[in-house]
Amino acid sequence: MPERLAHRDLRNRSSEVLREVAAGATFEVTNHGEVVAVLSPPAQGTDLRIRKARLHGGFSRLARVRRDQSVQEVLDDLRGEH
User: 36: domain range?
Assistant: First the structure.
């Protein structure tokens, strides 16, 4: 019988839950007490397609910028809280 898991617990413990699934566990995910999904390992021999990233080094190529204002000051100004 699969363990029931509230969606909030799945969100908070996702790494742990996925490790358990990889080890063979199955979970019924609930939302407001109703089962909405079943999380289980793939069937043996299932070919999982993993797509390679198309872009490489996007953010790493951006030049660093120094600002004379803090992020908080900029946000306060945008909100009209100056």
Answer: 1-42
